[in-house]
Amino acid sequence: MKLMTKQLNPTKRVCLRLQEAREHSGVSLQELSKRMRLSQDHIVALEECRFDEIPFAPVYQKNIIKSYMTNLGLDPDSFVDQFVCEEANRMEETPTRGRKKQQGFDSTHVPLLLKLSGISVVVISILGYLMIQVRHIVEPPNLVIYSPTDGLITHEQVIVVHGKTDSEASIQINGQRIPNSESGFFEQSIPLNEGVNTIMFMAQKKHGKQTLHTSHIIYKKDSSISALPFAAPL
C-alpha cells in the first residue's frame, strides 16, 4: 500500500490571521476604526505586522489586539497568546543580531589613528549636541493626535483623546493644561455637547514655541433612546 504524505502549512502570523478574521466578518477598516476609536493607519499597520509603527508599548498593543477581536465578536485569546509569543521571540532575536555584528568587528588599529578618531568623535559629538539644542529652541514642538480622528461622528457623550508631543513640552486641550508622560504621551476624557464640538490642542515648549491642532467631533444622541414621557422642558 502506498503511503500518502500530507504537507503541513506553517502557522500564519497573527497579523494575517487578524486581517482574515476581519474580512470574513465583513467589517471594513473604516467601521472597525470607529468601533475601536483607533486610526485606520494603526489598524493597517497592525494587520501588516508593522508593530514598530504603532506608537504604543507591547502591553498596550496586546490590548489593541484584544479590542480588535472583541469588536469583531470573536474570541481574542488565541490571537493575544500568539502575539505575545511572536513579540517575545522578536525581542530575543534583536540582541542576537547585534552580538553577531560585534563578533565580526576588526579591532586592529594604529595608535595614531585611534587618537585622531577619538578627537573627531568628540568634536562631532559636541557639534551635534549644539545643533540639537539650537533646533529644540527654534523649532515648535511635535504634536500628533492618534484619536479621535477629525470629523468623527459618535453617539458617545464622552470621548477619550490620545496623543503625543515632545517630552519637554506642555499640552493644553481647550485651554486646560493636562498631564503627559515622560515620553510625551497624553490621554484625556472630553465631554461632548450635542452637535459639532471643536477640540483645540496646543503643545508649547518652555521657550514659547507652540504647535496648534484643531479637531471637530460630531456628537449625535442615540435615536434609539426615547425621551422620558414627563421630562420637564429646559
Automatic annotation (TrEMBL):
Gene3D superfamilies to which the protein is assigned, alphabetical: Immunoglobulins (2.60.40.10), lambda repressor-like DNA-binding domains (1.10.260.40)
GO molecular function: DNA binding
UniProt KW keywords: Membrane, Transmembrane, Transmembrane helix
Transmembrane residue ranges: 112-132
InterPro entries: Bact_Cytoskel_RodZ, Ig-like_fold, Lambda_DNA-bd_dom_sf
Protein name as it appears in the record: HTH cro/C1-type domain-containing protein
